[in-house]
Specification:
Elements lengths: L6 E5 L6 E5 L18 E5 L14 E5 L2 E9 L7 E3 L5 E4 L8 E10 L2 E10 L5 E3 L1 E5 L6 E2 L5 E5 L6 H5 L2 E5 L5 E7 L2 E6 L7 E7 L5 E3 L2 E3 L3 E7 L3 E6 L4 E6 L2 E7 L15 E4 L2 E3 L2 E4 L12 E4 L2 E3 L6 E4 L17 E3 L1 H10 L5 E5 L18 H4 L7
Parallel strand pairs: 10-19, 12-20, 21-31, 29-30
Antiparallel strand pairs: 1-2, 2-3, 3-4, 4-7, 5-8, 6-7, 8-9, 11-13, 13-16, 14-17, 15-16, 17-20, 18-19, 21-22, 22-23, 24-31, 25-28, 26-27, 28-29
Keywords: Acyltransferase, Cell shape, Cell wall biogenesis/degradation, Peptidoglycan synthesis, Transferase
Protein name: L,D-transpeptidase family protein
Pathway: Cell wall biogenesis; peptidoglycan biosynthesis
Length: about 400
C-alpha cells in the first residue's frame, strides 16, 4: 500500500468504491483494531480502474474511524480539480466538473493513532462525440487597455442547448466590484455588461470553468478558458448632432472639444444615430463604400479616409475629412459619419480605446442595441432579462 499505518486495501462490491480498512493486530478480527475501536475506513469514488466516468460527476472521499489529512487529484490534462474538506475532516467532495477524455488519480491521506496511510484511485472520464469550446473572447488583444463601457463577448463553436448550465460557470471578477449580467444575444454568443460603467484603471479577470459541463444534448465542455482584461482611463465623449460639436472627458476632466459635421439626414442611412455607442475599432486608412449601391447608382461613393474610429456596424466613424472642414462646427453634410479635421482625427485616433463611450444626441434615429456594441442602449433591467438564470 505504501502507507505506514495498519491498513490494507479492499475493493468492495456494489458501489465499486476503493476502501481502505484498518486491520487489527490481535483480537477483534478484520476491520477492527485490537483495542476494540471501529475499523478505519477510507472510501474513494469513482473506484480504481473505472472507465467512462461522466465529466459532470463528482469525486467523493469518505473516512470512518479516521480523519482525512489531504486529498489531491491529478489529471493527465485539463483543469486542476479542487474540492472542499468537511469541517470534521471525515469527507471531501470535488467542487467542479472533470475534463472529458482524460485520466485522473485521486490520492487520499488519512491519519489514525499518529500514523499516516495513503490510498489512491485511478479512473478515466468518457470522451464525448461532441464538445463545446469558446472560440473567441473579446477583448483579448495582448497588452490592450479598454474603455469603461467595454462588454465581455464570448462566442462558442456551436449553439448552446443548456445555457443556464454554461452561464453558471462564467465568472467575472473585477478589482473594483460592480453589478453585471450575461445576455444570450445568439444561441452561440453571450455578452457580459455591467450595470454602470467599469471603474477606470483596474484589472478584470474572466474565467469559464467550462471543462466537463453538461451543455445539453450530449455535449460537454471541452476545456476551461480565461482572460485578463485591463480597464484604462475613463474616456467619455458627448456630442450634440444639432450643435455639431463633441467634448472628450478623461477621468472626468475635459480634455478637448471637437467640431464635427454629422450625417446630412436626407435619408435614414445618412442620419447619424443618437444614443450610447462604444468605440469598436480603429483603421488608418479605411475605404468607405456606400452600402447596397453599385458604381453608377445614385448616391454611390467610394472614399478612402484616414484615422477612422468606428462606433457602429452601420458604417459610422469619427474620421478625418479635410474636404468638409468649412462645415465642421456649423453644418451636417456627411453620409452619417462624424467628419472632423485631420488634426482632431489624429488626436482622437491616438487617444481612443476600444470600449470608450461616445454618447450622441440630436437626431431622430436611435442606435439599435444590436448595431455594433450598442448594449448600453438597453436599461440594465432589460439587459439582464437575456440571462438564462433570471
Amino acid at each position: 500500500m505504501g502507507g505506514k499505518g495498519r491498513f490494507r486495501l479492499i475493493v468492495t462490491g456494489g458501489a465499486g468504491a476503493v476502501t481502505l480498512l484498518a486491520a487489527g493486530c490481535g483480537i477483534g478480527g478484520e476491520g477492527m483494531l485490537a483495542s476494540g475501536k471501529s475499523a478505519a475506513v477510507v472510501t474513494i469514488s469513482p473506484a480504481n480502474g473505472t472507465a467512462q466516468v461522466r465529466p459532470d460527476g463528482t469525486i467523493e472521499v469518505k473516512a470512518s474511524g479516521t480523519k482525512l489529512e489531504s486529498v489531491t487529484v491529478q489529471g493527465v490534462q485539463g483543469a486542476p480539480i479542487t474540492g472542499r474538506m468537511a469541517g470534521n475532516r471525515k469527507s471531501w467532495r470535488s467542487d467542479r466538473t472533470l475534463t472529458p477524455g482524460t485520466s485522473y488519480t485521486v490520492t487520499a491521506r488519512s491519519r489514525d493513532d499518529g500514523k499516516t496511510s495513503t490510498v489512491t484511485s485511478a479512473f478515466t472520464t468518457l470522451k464525448p462525440e461532441r464538445t463545446l469550446s469558446i472560440v473567441d473572447i473579446t477583448p483579448s488583444l495582448e497588452g490592450e487597455k479598454v474603455g469603461v463601457g467595454m462588454p465581455i463577448m464570448l462566442r462558442f463553436d456551436r449553439p448552446v442547448a443548456d445555457k443556464a448550465a454554461v452561464e453558471r460557470v462564467l465568472q467575472v471578477t473585477p478589482d473594483k466590484p460592480v453589478e453585471g449580467a450575461w445576455n444570450w444575444v445568439a444561441p452561440d454568443q453571450v455578452t457580459y455588461r455591467t450595470k454602470t460603467y467599469w471603474q477606470p484603471h483596474q484589472t478584470v479577470r474572466f474565467q469559464a470553468r467550462l471543462a466537463g459541463v453538461n451543455a445539453g444534448g450530449g455535449v460537454y465542455g471541452a476545456k476551461d478558458a480565461q482572460q485578463t482584461i485591463t480597464i484604462g482611463a475613463s474616456q467619455i465623449t458627448t456630442g450634440d448632432i444639432g450643435r455639431h460639436s463633441m467634448t472628450v472627458r478623461r477621468d472626468g476632466k475635459k480634455v478637448r472639444t471637437i467640431p464635427f459635421s454629422a450625417g446630412n439626414g436626407e435619408t435614414r442611412e445618412f442620419t447619424t444615430t443618437s444614443g450610447v455607442h462604444l468605440l469598436m475599432e480603429k483603421g488608418n486608412p479605411v475605404t468607405m463604400v456606400s452600402p447596397g449601391r453599385q458604381e453608377g447608382d445614385a448616391g454611390y461613393y467610394k472614399t478612402v479616409v484616414n484615422h477612422a474610429v468606428r462606433f457602429s456596424n452601420s458604417g459610422e466613424y469619427v474620421h478625418a475629412a479635410p474636404w468638409s472642414v468649412g462645415s465642421q462646427g456649423s453644418a451636417n453634410v456627411s453620409h452619417g459619419c462624424l467628419n472632423v479635421s485631420p488634426s482632431d482625427a489624429l488626436w482622437y485616433y491616438d487617444t481612443a480605446q476600444r470600449g470608450d463611450v461616445i454618447e450622441l444626441t440630436g437626431s431622430n434615429r436611435e442606435v439599435e442595441p444590436d448595431n455594433g456594441w450598442g448594449q448600453w442602449q438597453l436599461s440594465f433591467d432589460k439587459w439582464r432579462q437575456g440571462s438564462a438564470l433570471t
